[in-house]
């Protein structure tokens, strides 16, 4: 049976007894009772001192909650009612709680983002490439609000740039000599992709890690790389040999050239000396041709016989040859004292008369004169 049905003697939840239904209590009465308990009297409202105290405490709490600090490596992006307001420098600052929002962004930290994958080269080979990009934030506002996720956008841009460069490069260059060019091209392509989006970041460096072919063909590519390294080594050895031989050859050429010049100068001077001697001899020959001719003949024979150790002399056409062993004579003269011999007789066929040479000279001069006439 419900509490308010006729005949129910139960308790009324509103405190009515005896069935007298007076309804729920008045709220004014409830507040009066509470104010009486806390105010110490039966005043007609909430104590003004308590209200002011509560408000002051709330204001202090609100003020203290707005104090914050920006670190040295950070910049604070302030939003007021959800709209960009200003950038805050490092130090202690205050913001209006529930009005301003501050997002600190580190602008000095160098961040790193990796990218990797199996990519197709220009010569239709598959290669595993890994690359890391280093960057930092230069514009905190653009970094936070220009794109939804700048790090993810940078990752996708780097993957696109890397695949584009790898797709326009042959595999040998990627694995060996063209790595530096691939790195530079990837960085330029990446910067060109992210520039229109205004990510607020600056690419510091792009590092290309060692690329490798698929495991199925790794041995064949290792052999190819070894062959290329051997080729480079042989080229360096050849260049070193050339650098060693070339100065030596240049020195030999210079020495031979100097010797040739010296020989030319010597021959020229000797020829000039001979010409000068004959020029000086010409007046003497013109003055006394026979005497000059005989003197030249004698001087020539003296030079000829002076350089030989054996002399063969014709004994006036009698079919015998006189042999004068000058080498033995010289040797005897050096080893022992010369022996005195008697002067040769005129009728001795083994001796050379003193006038025989003069006779032959006269006959020769007569024949020369007859031939000239």
Automatic annotation (TrEMBL):
The chain crosses the membrane at residues 44-65. It is found in: Membrane. Its main location: membrane. Residues 1-26, 333-373 are annotated as: Disordered. One of its GO terms (biological process) is proteolysis. InterPro entries: Band7/mec-2_domain, Band_7, Band_7/SPFH_dom_sf, HflK, Membrane_HflK_N, Stomatin_HflK_fam. It comes from the Bacteria. SMART domains: PHB. Residues 65-225 form the Band domain. The keyword Repeat does not apply. Residues 338-353 have a biased composition (Polar residues). Residues 363-373 have a biased composition (Basic and acidic residues). Keywords: Hydrolase, Membrane, Protease, Transmembrane, Transmembrane helix. Belongs to the band 7/mec-2 family. HflK subfamily. HflC and HflK could encode or regulate a protease. HflC and HflK may interact to form a multimeric complex. This is Protein HflK. It comes from Ferrimonas sediminum. The lineage of its organism: Bacteria, Pseudomonadati, Pseudomonadota, Gammaproteobacteria, Alteromonadales.
């Amino acid at each position: 049976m419900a509490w308010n049905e006729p005949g129910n003697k139960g308790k009324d939840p509103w405190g009515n007894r005896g069935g007298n239904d007076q309804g729920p209590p008045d709220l004014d009465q409830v507040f009066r009772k509470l104010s009486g308990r806390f105010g110490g009297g039966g005043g007609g409202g909430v104590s003004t001192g308590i209200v002011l105290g509560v408000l002051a405490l709330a204001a202090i709490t609100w003020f203290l909650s707005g104090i914050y600090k920006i670190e040295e490596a950070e910049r604070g992006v302030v939003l007021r009612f959800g709209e960009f307001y200003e950038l805050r420098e490092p130090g202690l600052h205050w913001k209006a709680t529930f009005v301003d929002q501050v997002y600190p962004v580190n602008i000095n930290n160098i961040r790193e983002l990796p990218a990797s994958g199996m990519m197709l080269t220009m010569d239709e080979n598959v290669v595993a490439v890994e690359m890391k990009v280093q960057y930092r934030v230069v514009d905190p506002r653009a970094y936070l609000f220009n794109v939804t996720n700048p790090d993810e956008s940078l990752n996708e841009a780097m993957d696109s740039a890397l695949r584009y460069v790898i797709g326009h490069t042959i595999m040998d260059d990627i694995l060996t000599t063209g790595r530096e060019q691939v790195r530079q091209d990837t960085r330029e392509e990446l910067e060109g992709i992210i520039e229109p989006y205004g990510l607020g970041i600056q690419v510091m460096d792009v590092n290309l890690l060692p690329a490798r072919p698929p495991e199925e063909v790794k041995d064949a590519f290792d052999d190819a790389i070894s062959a290329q390294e051997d080729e480079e080594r042989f080229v360096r050895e050849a260049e070193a040999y050339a650098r060693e031989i070339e100065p030596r050859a240049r020195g030999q050429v210079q020495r031979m050239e100097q010797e040739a010049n010296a020989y030319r100068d010597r021959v020229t001077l000797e020829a000039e000396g001979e010409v000068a001697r004959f020029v000086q001899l010409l007046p003497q020959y013109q003055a006394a041709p026979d005497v000059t001719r005989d003197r030249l003949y004698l001087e020539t024979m003296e030079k000829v016989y002076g350089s030989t150790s054996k002399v063969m002399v014709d004994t006036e056409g009698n079919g015998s040859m006189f042999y004068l062993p000058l080498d033995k004579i010289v040797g005897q003269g050096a080893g022992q004292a010369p022996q005195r011999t008697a002067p040769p007789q005129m009728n001795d066929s083994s001796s050379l008369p003193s006038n025989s040479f003069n006779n032959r000279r006269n006959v020769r001069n007569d024949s020369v004169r007859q031939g000239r006439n």
